[in-house]
Amino acid sequence: MQPTDLTIEILKGIREEGRKTNERLEQTNARLESGLTDLSRRVGALEKATVDGFVAVTARLEHLRDFAGERYREPEQRLSRVETRLDALEGGRRGP
Question: How many CA atoms lie within 13 A of 13 on its CB side?
């Protein structure tokens, strides 16, 4: 075998290994793209679930606020009314 024939065979081997490497890279890229697509879908679903959860919590808090009524929204006013009632009760017990 001539030295040039040996060089050609070595270069052919390198070319073949390069092709195999490219095939493996293409397979890896396909797997990564598939994984990213799945991950993107899952993140989208989680985002929607989170938004829906916050909407539900907000609705429940608003319902609770409405259920509790105005007297619970203003603690100072409520305390003032209680003090006024207490003063009236204490005044009624003292007598003339």
Answer: 6
- pTM for this prediction: 0.47
Tell me the backbone φ, ψ of residue 9, rounded to 5 degrees: -65, -40
For 55: left if phi > 0, alpha if psi spans -120 to 50, otherwise beta; the answer is: alpha
Confidence of residue 59 (pLDDT cuts 50, 70, 90): very high
**Dihedrals φ, ψ of 69, to 5°?**
90, 175
Distance CA 4, CA 2 (A): 5
The CA distance from 16 to 22, in Å, is 10
CB of 61 closer than 8 Å to CB of 55 = no
Say if residues 72 and 78 touch (Cβ distance below 8 Å): yes
